[in-house]
Amino acid sequence: MNSLKILVTGAAGQLGNELRSILEERMPGQTVYVDLPQADLTSRELAEDLLRQGGFTHVVNCAAYTAVDRAEEEKLQCKEVNEGIVSNLARIADELGTRIIHISTDYVFDGNTCRPYTESDKPEPLSVYGATKRKSETILLGLAPNSMVLRTGWLYSPHGHNFMKTVLSLAEKKDRIGIVADQTGTPTYAGDLASAIVSILESNHWVPGVFHFANEGVATWYDFAVAILEEAGMPEKAAVVAPISTADYPCAAARPHYSVLDKSRFKATFGITIPHWRDGLRRCMAEMAAIN
Predict the structure, then answer these.
(1) What is the domain-level CATH number for residue 84?
(2) Is position 156 annotated as part of the catalytic site?
(3) Per the structure, how many domains does the chain have?
(4) Which of 80, 102, 192, 264 has its CA 20 to 30 A from that of 171?
(5) Which of 65, 129, 189, 222 is catalytic?
(6) Is the pLDDT reported for residue 216 higher than 80?
(7) Distance CA 207, CA 149 (A)
(8) Distance CA 211, CA 261 (A)
(9) Confidence tier at 1 by pLDDT (50, 70, 90)
(10) pLDDT of 31-57, one tens digit each?
Protein backbone atom coordinates (compact mmCIF):
# COMPACT_ATOMS: atom_id res chain seq x y z
CA MET A 1 0.00 0.00 0.00
CA ASN A 2 2.83 2.43 0.79
CA SER A 3 4.09 2.16 -2.79
CA LEU A 4 0.87 3.57 -4.22
CA LYS A 5 0.90 6.96 -5.91
CA ILE A 6 -2.54 8.04 -7.04
CA LEU A 7 -3.83 10.73 -9.39
CA VAL A 8 -7.43 11.86 -8.90
CA THR A 9 -8.88 13.86 -11.78
CA GLY A 10 -12.04 15.92 -11.39
CA ALA A 11 -10.96 16.45 -7.80
CA ALA A 12 -13.28 19.42 -7.20
CA GLY A 13 -16.42 17.41 -7.94
CA GLN A 14 -18.64 15.32 -5.70
CA LEU A 15 -16.66 12.10 -5.89
CA GLY A 16 -13.31 13.88 -6.01
CA ASN A 17 -14.04 15.66 -2.74
CA GLU A 18 -15.08 12.43 -1.03
CA LEU A 19 -11.97 10.64 -2.32
CA ARG A 20 -9.74 13.40 -1.00
CA SER A 21 -11.30 13.14 2.45
CA ILE A 22 -10.77 9.37 2.66
CA LEU A 23 -7.38 9.18 0.95
CA GLU A 24 -5.83 11.91 3.09
CA GLU A 25 -6.92 10.03 6.19
CA ARG A 26 -5.92 6.53 5.09
CA MET A 27 -3.02 7.23 2.69
CA PRO A 28 -1.79 10.74 3.51
CA GLY A 29 0.53 12.34 0.99
CA GLN A 30 0.18 9.63 -1.65
CA THR A 31 -2.32 11.38 -3.94
CA VAL A 32 -2.22 14.28 -6.40
CA TYR A 33 -5.56 16.01 -7.07
CA VAL A 34 -6.21 17.92 -10.29
CA ASP A 35 -9.15 19.68 -11.88
CA LEU A 36 -10.00 22.43 -14.33
CA PRO A 37 -8.81 25.04 -15.02
CA GLN A 38 -5.38 24.24 -13.56
CA ALA A 39 -5.13 20.93 -15.40
CA ASP A 40 -6.90 20.79 -18.75
CA LEU A 41 -6.55 17.11 -19.53
CA THR A 42 -8.34 17.53 -22.85
CA SER A 43 -4.84 18.56 -23.94
CA ARG A 44 -3.00 15.38 -24.91
CA GLU A 45 0.36 17.03 -24.27
CA LEU A 46 -0.60 18.13 -20.77
CA ALA A 47 -2.08 14.74 -19.90
CA GLU A 48 1.04 12.97 -21.15
CA ASP A 49 3.38 15.27 -19.22
CA LEU A 50 1.36 14.82 -16.04
CA LEU A 51 1.43 11.03 -16.19
CA ARG A 52 5.05 10.71 -17.29
CA GLN A 53 6.34 13.09 -14.63
CA GLY A 54 4.04 11.93 -11.85
CA GLY A 55 5.05 8.30 -11.63
CA PHE A 56 1.50 7.30 -10.69
CA THR A 57 0.53 3.71 -10.00
CA HIS A 58 -3.18 4.50 -10.33
CA VAL A 59 -5.48 7.12 -11.84
CA VAL A 60 -9.03 7.56 -10.59
CA ASN A 61 -10.75 9.47 -13.37
CA CYS A 62 -13.67 11.44 -11.93
CA ALA A 63 -13.39 14.20 -14.54
CA ALA A 64 -16.64 14.43 -16.50
CA TYR A 65 -19.07 16.73 -18.23
CA THR A 66 -22.24 15.90 -16.29
CA ALA A 67 -24.73 18.62 -17.32
CA VAL A 68 -27.05 16.07 -18.93
CA ASP A 69 -29.51 18.52 -20.50
CA ARG A 70 -26.98 21.15 -21.54
CA ALA A 71 -24.96 18.43 -23.28
CA GLU A 72 -27.71 18.16 -25.91
CA GLU A 73 -26.61 21.61 -27.13
CA GLU A 74 -22.95 21.49 -26.09
CA LYS A 75 -22.17 18.21 -27.80
CA LEU A 76 -18.58 19.07 -28.68
CA GLN A 77 -17.71 20.23 -25.16
CA CYS A 78 -19.27 17.10 -23.68
CA LYS A 79 -17.37 14.89 -26.10
CA GLU A 80 -14.06 16.65 -25.46
CA VAL A 81 -14.28 16.10 -21.72
CA ASN A 82 -15.94 12.70 -21.49
CA GLU A 83 -14.13 11.05 -24.38
CA GLY A 84 -11.04 13.20 -24.92
CA ILE A 85 -9.68 13.06 -21.37
CA VAL A 86 -10.08 9.28 -21.21
CA SER A 87 -8.33 8.87 -24.55
CA ASN A 88 -5.43 11.06 -23.49
CA LEU A 89 -4.96 9.30 -20.17
CA ALA A 90 -5.40 5.78 -21.53
CA ARG A 91 -2.78 6.10 -24.28
CA ILE A 92 -0.04 6.96 -21.82
CA ALA A 93 -1.27 4.86 -18.90
CA ASP A 94 -1.12 1.66 -20.91
CA GLU A 95 2.48 2.38 -21.93
CA LEU A 96 3.51 3.21 -18.35
CA GLY A 97 1.58 0.38 -16.71
CA THR A 98 -0.57 2.83 -14.76
CA ARG A 99 -3.93 1.41 -13.69
CA ILE A 100 -7.05 3.49 -14.35
CA ILE A 101 -10.37 3.42 -12.51
CA HIS A 102 -12.83 5.32 -14.69
CA ILE A 103 -16.24 6.43 -13.44
CA SER A 104 -19.17 5.89 -15.80
CA THR A 105 -22.93 6.03 -15.51
CA ASP A 106 -26.23 4.15 -15.48
CA TYR A 107 -27.26 6.49 -18.32
CA VAL A 108 -25.48 4.21 -20.79
CA PHE A 109 -28.73 2.17 -20.66
CA ASP A 110 -32.12 3.02 -22.18
CA GLY A 111 -34.22 1.82 -19.25
CA ASN A 112 -36.41 -0.54 -21.28
CA THR A 113 -36.29 -3.32 -18.71
CA CYS A 114 -37.76 -4.22 -15.35
CA ARG A 115 -34.74 -5.90 -13.76
CA PRO A 116 -31.38 -4.53 -12.61
CA TYR A 117 -28.84 -4.11 -15.39
CA THR A 118 -25.80 -6.39 -15.41
CA GLU A 119 -22.44 -5.60 -16.95
CA SER A 120 -23.25 -7.92 -19.87
CA ASP A 121 -26.41 -6.04 -20.86
CA LYS A 122 -26.10 -4.07 -24.08
CA PRO A 123 -25.74 -0.30 -23.55
CA GLU A 124 -28.26 1.82 -25.45
CA PRO A 125 -27.80 5.43 -24.30
CA LEU A 126 -30.67 7.88 -24.82
CA SER A 127 -28.72 11.14 -24.46
CA VAL A 128 -25.55 12.84 -25.66
CA TYR A 129 -24.17 12.55 -22.15
CA GLY A 130 -24.91 8.83 -21.99
CA ALA A 131 -23.45 8.26 -25.45
CA THR A 132 -20.18 10.02 -24.60
CA LYS A 133 -19.84 8.08 -21.36
CA ARG A 134 -20.43 4.82 -23.22
CA LYS A 135 -17.84 5.83 -25.81
CA SER A 136 -15.40 6.64 -23.00
CA GLU A 137 -15.72 3.06 -21.74
CA THR A 138 -14.89 1.54 -25.12
CA ILE A 139 -12.02 3.99 -25.67
CA LEU A 140 -10.50 3.17 -22.29
CA LEU A 141 -10.74 -0.60 -22.51
CA GLY A 142 -9.56 -0.52 -26.12
CA LEU A 143 -6.44 1.54 -25.39
CA ALA A 144 -5.72 0.34 -21.85
CA PRO A 145 -7.35 -3.07 -21.37
CA ASN A 146 -5.99 -3.44 -17.83
CA SER A 147 -8.33 -0.64 -16.73
CA MET A 148 -11.47 -0.73 -14.62
CA VAL A 149 -14.80 0.97 -15.41
CA LEU A 150 -17.14 1.64 -12.49
CA ARG A 151 -20.67 2.52 -13.54
CA THR A 152 -22.76 4.30 -10.93
CA GLY A 153 -25.85 6.49 -10.84
CA TRP A 154 -27.88 9.12 -9.02
CA LEU A 155 -24.77 10.36 -7.23
CA TYR A 156 -25.12 12.94 -4.46
CA SER A 157 -23.02 14.44 -1.66
CA PRO A 158 -22.68 17.67 0.34
CA HIS A 159 -20.48 19.01 -2.48
CA GLY A 160 -21.38 20.53 -5.83
CA HIS A 161 -24.75 20.47 -7.57
CA ASN A 162 -26.96 17.44 -7.05
CA PHE A 163 -30.55 16.36 -6.50
CA MET A 164 -30.32 16.26 -2.71
CA LYS A 165 -29.16 19.86 -2.44
CA THR A 166 -31.74 20.99 -5.01
CA VAL A 167 -34.58 19.40 -3.03
CA LEU A 168 -33.41 21.02 0.22
CA SER A 169 -33.22 24.39 -1.51
CA LEU A 170 -36.68 24.06 -3.08
CA ALA A 171 -38.18 23.05 0.26
CA GLU A 172 -37.15 26.38 1.74
CA LYS A 173 -38.73 28.37 -1.10
CA LYS A 174 -41.85 26.52 -2.22
CA ASP A 175 -45.08 25.26 -0.69
CA ARG A 176 -45.38 22.46 -3.26
CA ILE A 177 -42.60 20.47 -4.89
CA GLY A 178 -43.35 18.34 -7.95
CA ILE A 179 -40.92 15.43 -8.30
CA VAL A 180 -40.79 12.79 -11.04
CA ALA A 181 -42.16 9.47 -9.80
CA ASP A 182 -41.84 7.27 -12.90
CA GLN A 183 -38.04 7.04 -13.11
CA THR A 184 -36.47 4.34 -10.94
CA GLY A 185 -32.83 3.97 -9.93
CA THR A 186 -30.68 3.94 -6.82
CA PRO A 187 -29.54 7.10 -5.01
CA THR A 188 -25.82 6.67 -4.37
CA TYR A 189 -23.87 8.55 -1.72
CA ALA A 190 -20.55 9.63 -3.24
CA GLY A 191 -18.86 8.84 0.07
CA ASP A 192 -19.81 5.17 -0.27
CA LEU A 193 -18.48 5.00 -3.83
CA ALA A 194 -15.26 6.73 -2.72
CA SER A 195 -14.86 4.29 0.17
CA ALA A 196 -15.26 1.33 -2.20
CA ILE A 197 -12.67 2.76 -4.60
CA VAL A 198 -10.14 3.31 -1.80
CA SER A 199 -10.74 -0.23 -0.54
CA ILE A 200 -9.90 -1.56 -4.00
CA LEU A 201 -6.73 0.54 -4.10
CA GLU A 202 -5.67 -0.60 -0.63
CA SER A 203 -6.29 -4.28 -1.35
CA ASN A 204 -4.35 -4.28 -4.60
CA HIS A 205 -6.85 -6.89 -5.81
CA TRP A 206 -7.02 -5.64 -9.36
CA VAL A 207 -9.56 -7.01 -11.82
CA PRO A 208 -9.96 -5.09 -15.10
CA GLY A 209 -13.26 -4.66 -16.90
CA VAL A 210 -16.67 -3.17 -16.23
CA PHE A 211 -18.33 -3.21 -12.79
CA HIS A 212 -21.51 -1.73 -11.36
CA PHE A 213 -21.59 0.13 -8.05
CA ALA A 214 -24.53 1.90 -6.46
CA ASN A 215 -26.04 1.79 -3.01
CA GLU A 216 -28.43 -1.08 -2.28
CA GLY A 217 -32.18 -0.71 -2.76
CA VAL A 218 -34.27 1.11 -5.34
CA ALA A 219 -36.22 4.37 -5.39
CA THR A 220 -37.93 6.85 -7.65
CA TRP A 221 -36.87 10.49 -7.62
CA TYR A 222 -40.08 11.11 -5.68
CA ASP A 223 -39.14 8.49 -3.06
CA PHE A 224 -35.69 10.02 -2.78
CA ALA A 225 -37.05 13.55 -2.34
CA VAL A 226 -39.41 12.49 0.45
CA ALA A 227 -36.57 10.64 2.21
CA ILE A 228 -34.27 13.67 1.91
CA LEU A 229 -36.76 15.92 3.65
CA GLU A 230 -37.56 13.33 6.31
CA GLU A 231 -33.88 12.82 7.11
CA ALA A 232 -33.38 16.60 7.15
CA GLY A 233 -35.99 16.88 9.89
CA MET A 234 -38.55 18.54 7.61
CA PRO A 235 -41.48 16.07 7.66
CA GLU A 236 -43.96 18.86 7.05
CA LYS A 237 -42.18 19.63 3.77
CA ALA A 238 -42.05 15.95 2.83
CA ALA A 239 -45.83 15.92 3.04
CA VAL A 240 -46.13 18.53 0.26
CA VAL A 241 -43.91 16.72 -2.25
CA ALA A 242 -46.17 15.78 -5.16
CA PRO A 243 -45.47 12.89 -7.56
CA ILE A 244 -45.45 13.89 -11.22
CA SER A 245 -44.66 12.07 -14.46
CA THR A 246 -41.68 12.52 -16.75
CA ALA A 247 -44.09 14.02 -19.28
CA ASP A 248 -45.00 16.69 -16.73
CA TYR A 249 -41.36 17.74 -16.45
CA PRO A 250 -39.93 17.89 -19.98
CA CYS A 251 -36.15 18.01 -20.29
CA ALA A 252 -33.80 18.43 -23.23
CA ALA A 253 -32.23 15.01 -22.63
CA ALA A 254 -34.18 11.77 -22.32
CA ARG A 255 -33.61 9.74 -19.15
CA PRO A 256 -34.05 5.99 -18.69
CA HIS A 257 -37.24 5.10 -16.83
CA TYR A 258 -35.38 2.29 -15.07
CA SER A 259 -31.63 2.30 -14.42
CA VAL A 260 -31.08 0.12 -11.36
CA LEU A 261 -27.65 -1.54 -11.51
CA ASP A 262 -26.95 -5.14 -10.53
CA LYS A 263 -23.93 -5.11 -8.19
CA SER A 264 -23.49 -8.89 -7.91
CA ARG A 265 -20.24 -8.99 -9.89
CA PHE A 266 -18.71 -6.16 -7.89
CA LYS A 267 -19.58 -7.72 -4.54
CA ALA A 268 -18.39 -11.18 -5.55
CA THR A 269 -15.12 -9.86 -6.97
CA PHE A 270 -14.08 -7.43 -4.25
CA GLY A 271 -15.96 -8.68 -1.19
CA ILE A 272 -17.13 -5.18 -0.33
CA THR A 273 -20.39 -4.72 1.55
CA ILE A 274 -22.59 -2.02 0.01
CA PRO A 275 -24.86 0.03 2.30
CA HIS A 276 -28.53 0.70 1.56
CA TRP A 277 -29.24 4.06 -0.04
CA ARG A 278 -31.26 5.26 2.94
CA ASP A 279 -28.32 4.58 5.25
CA GLY A 280 -26.06 6.44 2.84
CA LEU A 281 -28.44 9.39 2.92
CA ARG A 282 -28.29 9.57 6.72
CA ARG A 283 -24.50 9.60 6.70
CA CYS A 284 -24.44 12.21 3.95
CA MET A 285 -26.71 14.43 6.02
CA ALA A 286 -24.36 14.00 8.98
CA GLU A 287 -21.38 14.92 6.80
CA MET A 288 -23.17 18.01 5.53
CA ALA A 289 -24.06 19.08 9.07
CA ALA A 290 -20.41 18.71 10.11
CA ILE A 291 -19.26 20.83 7.16
CA ASN A 292 -21.81 23.56 7.86
Answers:
(1) 3.40.50.720
(2) no
(3) 1
(4) 192
(5) 129
(6) yes
(7) 10
(8) 10
(9) very low
(10) 999 998 788 999 999 999 999 999 999
